[in-house]
Structures are given as C-alpha cells and as structure tokens.
C-alpha cells in the first residue's frame, strides 16, 4: 500500500501552487507534510486524493491512478480536508450514515462501521447534535470520523487536530499511532510537535516544491525538536513557527 506522485504540477492564475513534485509514502508510515501557509500542502493533498485535477503529472494510490482511474483510487482513501465544513443541518449520526452509504456501506454493515468509529473517537454524546451546532473541536472530530469510517488503507489528513483541545489532540494522536502499523498515512500539520510525535518521515515544502525529505530523526536538533532545522530550511529567522496549538 503506497502513495506515489510523479511530477505533479498545479497553477492557479499566476500562482504556481505545486511544481513538478514527486514523492513516495510507504505502508506502515505516517509521513508529515510541513511548510508555511501557502507552501502548496493542501493543493498537493487535493491532487493526491483526486479531488483536484493536476495540470500535469500523475499519482497512484495502491497502484490506481488518480487521473485515469480516479474512482478506484478513491476507494482506497480516507480524506480529511483542511478546515472541513458543510452538512451543517445533519446530525452527526446522519452525517456518518450518509458517508457510509456514499462509500457503499448499508444496513448492518454501515451500523457496525459507525459503532466502531464512534467508540474509537468517543463521539456518542454528539450523535444527535447538528454539525452546525457543534464546537470547532467536536466538528473536527466528526470529520476525522468520516475519514476513518470505512477503515481505508490509505489516509490523507490535512491538519487533523486543528481546533481540538489538548485532551482531544492527545486522543486523536494516540489513535493515529495505533493505526499507523497497518496503513499508509500522509498528513499535513503546522504543529511541529505533532510531527515529532507521530511522523516516521517528514517532507518540507516551500513554494510548491519539496525542499528536503527524510526520516524525522535526521531533522531533530540535540533537544529533539524539529523547529531549528525547519526554520533554517524555510529561511525563517525572527518569525516563530508554531510548535503547538
């Protein structure tokens, strides 16, 4: 189970969001996608999930092209978009059932999948609340649940702990670590502490290109932090990159 991208490019007007980018993420890895806002991380993830067509290049998810075999590739994927929103009038249970049905699960099979993820993410108390009435943290947890609902082999998570309180962050991180041995996970995060805790490998992007990639350990300073190396690669001096939040 792998993610492979070959020379992906995407331009919006005069903005080159992603430029001839290639990468590989292997089974059993959580790979962190790091970079400043506007580096192209979300655009890259949208192309890898088949929700945004590249201008050129291609990517494969478990051997299925997201350009020429998009539907089959998407059967392998769980996707949490950046700043996920929508479906505000649906209760959480209705939302999860809608997602289950959209992915081909019905009746008892859908119920089992929903029960599993509700228990795993402690969502029971929010099931009868509309998404639009939830706090940001609870809404994010519901959207994480939809990404994991069908137990897909490949996960794309764009800022998975955004809006969560420290206890919720800890719970989601622990859950992802438990899953990592059996899945292929690419996640973007602006929280360097999160990458230190979760990611076997990191990819550092800037202006739509990969600056450097490798095992997380190779980027850590003597105090076990990513921040000094990431700041150096991005040319950041006075501005502090978030390490928690």
Q: Your description of this structure?
A:
33% of the residues lie in helices and 25% in strands. It is built from 8 helices and 10 strands. With 245 residues, it is of the alpha/beta class. It has helices at residues 41-48, 70-74, 92-102, 107-120, 136-148, 166-179, 192-198, 227-234; strands at 3-12, 15-25, 30-34, 56-61, 64-65, 77-80, 154-158, 184-188, 201-206, 209-215. It is globular, with a radius of gyration of 18 Å. α3 packs across α4 (107-120). It folds into 2 domains: 1-76 and 153-245, 3-Layer(aba) Sandwich (Rossmann fold); 85-151, no CATH class. It has a 6-stranded mixed sheet with strand order 6-7-8-3-9-10, with helices on both faces.
Outline of this structure?
The chain is of the alpha/beta class.
Features:
alpha/beta; Rossmann fold; 2 domains
- The tally of helices reads 8
CATH topology of the largest domain: Rossmann fold
Which segments are poorly predicted (pLDDT under 50) over 5 or more consecutive residues? none
**Computed Rg:** 18 Å
Integer average pLDDT: 93
Q: Any idea how many domains? A: 2
Number of distinct beta strands? 10
Annotated CATH architecture of the largest domain:
3-Layer(aba) Sandwich
Topology:
Blueprint: E1 3-12, E2 15-25, E3 30-34, H1 41-48, E4 56-61, E5 64-65, H2 70-74, E6 77-80, H3 92-102, H4 107-120, H5 136-148, E7 154-158, H6 166-179, E8 184-188, H7 192-198, E9 201-206, E10 209-215, H8 227-234
Parallel strand pairs: 3-8, 3-9, 6-7, 7-8
Antiparallel strand pairs: 1-2, 1-4, 4-5, 9-10
Helix pairs in contact: 3-4
């Amino acid at each position: 189970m792998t993610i492979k991208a070959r020379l992906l490019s995407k331009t919006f007007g005069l903005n080159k969001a992603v430029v001839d980018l290639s990468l590989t993420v292997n089974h059993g890895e959580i790979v962190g996608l790091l970079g400043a806002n506007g580096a192209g991380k979300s655009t890259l993830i949208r192309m890898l999930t088949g929700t945004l067509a590249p201008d050129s290049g291609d990517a494969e998810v478990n051997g299925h092209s997201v350009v020429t075999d998009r539907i089959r590739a998407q059967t392998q994927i769980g996707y949490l978009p950046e700043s996920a929103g929508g479906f505000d009038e649906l209760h959480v249970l209705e939302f999860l059932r809608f997602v289950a049905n959209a992915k081909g699960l019905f009746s008892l099979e859908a119920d089992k999948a929903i029960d599993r993820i509700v228990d795993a993410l402690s969502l029971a108390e929010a099931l009868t609340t509309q998404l639009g009435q939830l706090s940001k943290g609870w809404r994010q947890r519901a959207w994480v649940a939809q990404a994991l609902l069908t137990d897909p082999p490949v996960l794309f998570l764009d800022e998975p702990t955004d809006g969560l309180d420290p206890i919720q962050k800890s719970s989601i991180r622990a859950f992802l670590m438990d899953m990592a041995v059996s899945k292929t996970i690419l996640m973007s995060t602006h929280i360097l502490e999160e990458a230190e805790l979760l990611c076997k490998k990191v990819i550092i992007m800037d202006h739509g290109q990969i600056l450097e990639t490798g095992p997380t350990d190779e980027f850590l300073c003597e105090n076990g932090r990513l921040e000094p190396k990431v700041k150096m690669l991005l040319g950041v001096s006075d501005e502090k990159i978030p390490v928690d939040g």
